[in-house]
Design goal:
alpha+beta, Nuclear Transport Factor 2, Chain: A, Glutaredoxin, 2 domains, five-stranded mixed sheet, 9 helices
């Protein structure tokens, strides 16, 4: 804390550091004590902005969840949570999307492109959607059923990142699919036989390919995801968005990138 106190002294050096703060790494920046105490509790700051009422807005992460807070004009108090205007509009959501979720999702998209996924649909389909799928997940099954019209029409390719987290045989099933000679066909078999328990586990394949599924499990955990399906897609503006859990019917057209065929 000694170095922080030095930076907070009202000297010309302080003014210079504040002016140059945008070019400094996060660890080298100084914050008012009211903000620093949140950082000391584990909040990471991803960005800041000028907020109404002379306040300074901050957005960042706390244990993998986006958080926003506002420093009052006297710099002695912090208000945590969303800000609403007189019309009831949430002024915080757009800043969280711009400064936190947007960059996070773009980074995740590049990781998913290089992940171990199974193609569902035509490789020539113009719209790519990534989804974390557990072979035993009923909500993944429903999502796949809802997406079928777009897949069959050749508009969307679902790229399933197979994980094994729900049941004891989830990982063996995922490894059997991902390690088969035709993973896409094995995935389709699992869906076709879902009501019967899904694909039959091949222990020899599991032994050879379990680590691939474990790597996908780690990727999912590293992205802070806790539910299947967890789906990444690009909206009409080209921004990467993420949906945890089964999408509602009204969300499908946005995720699939077009009206239902």
């Amino acid at each position: 804390m000694k170095s922080v106190n030095v930076l907070l002294k009202p000297t010309l050096l302080t003014v210079t550091l504040v002016t140059a703060s945008l070019s400094l790494p996060a660890w080298a920046q100084s914050y008012p004590p009211a903000v620093q105490q949140l950082i000391d509790r584990g909040v990471s700051i991803d960005g800041s902005f000028d907020a109404p009422g002379g306040m300074k807005g901050y957005v960042g992460n706390m244990q993998g969840r986006a958080v926003a807070f506002y420093l009052t004009e006297d710099k002695d108090h912090v208000i945590v949570g969303p800000m609403l205007n007189a019309k009831g509009e949430n002024l915080t959501e757009s800043k969280i999307q711009e400064l936190v979720l947007g960059p996070q999702n773009e980074k995740a998209w590049s990781q998913l492109k290089d992940a171990d996924w199974v193609l569902d649909g035509s490789a020539d389909a113009p719209v790519v959607v990534y989804t974390f799928t557990d072979p035993n997940c009923p909500f993944c099954h429903r999502f796949r059923q809802a997406a079928e019209p777009w897949i069959n029409a050749g508009r969307v390719q679902l790229r399933h990142i197979l994980v094994g987290i729900l049941k004891e045989d989830s990982l063996p099933k995922a490894a059997t699919i991902i390690g088969s000679e035709n993973p896409s066909a094995a995935l389709a078999e699992n869906y076709d036989r879902y009501s019967e328990g899904g694909i039959t586990v091949d222990r020899q394949i599991v032994s050879a390919h379990a680590r691939r599924v474990q790597a996908n499990n780690q990727l999912m955990s590293g992205l802070g995801l806790s539910a299947t399906p967890s789906t990444y897609y690009r909206d009409s503006a080209g921004d990467v968005k993420m949906k945890q859990g089964a999408p509602r019917p009204g969300e499908m057209e946005s995720i699939m990138g077009s009206k239902r065929p």
